[in-house]
Amino acid sequence: xxxxxxxxxxxxxxxxxxxxxxxxxxxxxxxxxxxxxxxxxxxxxxxxxxxxxxxxxxxxxxxxxxxxxxxxxxxxxxxxxxxxxxxxxxxxxxxxxxxxxxxxxxxxxxxxxxxxxxxxxxxxxxxxxxxxxxxxxx
Length: 138
Fold this sequence. Notes:
This protein is of the alpha+beta class. It is 33% helix and 27% strand.
């Protein structure tokens, strides 16, 4: 996969996260039809908020998404929007939520930054920067 940088007026970025959202009580409630709805909602929210879902998939009690986003958005805002809108649309579609509750998702989530060079390579790169030369008696 070729790295495509997000170019905006004052920044060039490549910010990506791997996000995992689990259902409330980790109830196994998703079928293929329900996961398709979740994907559609996630992609709609991404379009509205100017970020991208690069990949999305799930199992019967959780969803994985690879997300590329701009620096002006925080991970927590992205997650809150995705989970809030998808929970509402899931209920509106007539699907039952865990234990008859109003929430579809657990309040927690897993997010990790991905892409770029391994941390060891970055540490060496920073350590090996050419130091400015100082002239005595300047």
